[in-house]
Amino acid sequence: MSLPGLLVLTDRSQCDRPLADVVAVAVDAGARAVVLREKDLPDGERDALAGELRAVLAPVGGQLVCAGPRGDDAVHLAARDPFPAPRPRLVGRSCHSAGELAAARAEGCDYVLLSPVFPTRSKPGYGPALGVEGFARLLPGAPPAYALGGVLPDVVPALLAAGAAGIAVMGPVMRDPSIVAAYLTALAAA
């Protein structure tokens, strides 16, 4: 299975309205893949939210990926999460170093999120920021890598030229989901 060039990551704490409404606006603007984070929610609430987001994505053939190793056919793992058994249909992992990228490749991850590319308000304290050159240096031998962390539409062409499989965005989309159109325009132009 292949993912589109833009992955939207959720963080309801950055939204000014219900998360499902923010995702609906992002989907209306063209988003087709969403990673549901919200790991602090109790399982029942998170499952209900996943159902809402699947309903938003279904009419456009979109993909919901759930963060954590539990249950779904498409999962996104933190750097230290155990690899799930049985293997889901789609497995991604967050990576921050060459060692984590090598481990993700060895375990057969379908994609990785490599971060932080730039300083980010969403996850302060991670770093140092890689920059475009640092991101590119880590890619050889890695699974398809999405650039995450402080990525704005104007740097998308440089990241794609550096070898990114796509980009992953959380904060800017959670705060203004209509910005998805600008990211998609940048992806299409590159």
UniProtKB/TrEMBL annotation:
A GO CC term attached to the entry: cytoplasm
Alphabetical list of InterPro entries matching this protein: Aldolase_TIM, ThiamineP_synth_sf, ThiamineP_synth_TenI
Gene3D superfamilies according to UniProt: Aldolase class I
Domain Thiamine phosphate synthase/TenI residue range list: 7-171
Keyword terms: Thiamine biosynthesis
One of the GO biological process terms: thiamine biosynthetic process
Domain of life of the native organism: Bacteria
GO MF entry, a single one: thiamine-phosphate diphosphorylase activity
Known pathway: Cofactor biosynthesis; thiamine diphosphate biosynthesis
Keyword Repressor recorded: no
Function: Condenses 4-methyl-5-(beta-hydroxyethyl)thiazole monophosphate (THZ-P) and 2-methyl-4-amino-5-hydroxymethyl pyrimidine pyrophosphate (HMP-PP) to form thiamine monophosphate (TMP).
Protein name: Thiamine phosphate synthase
Originating species: Geodermatophilus sabuli
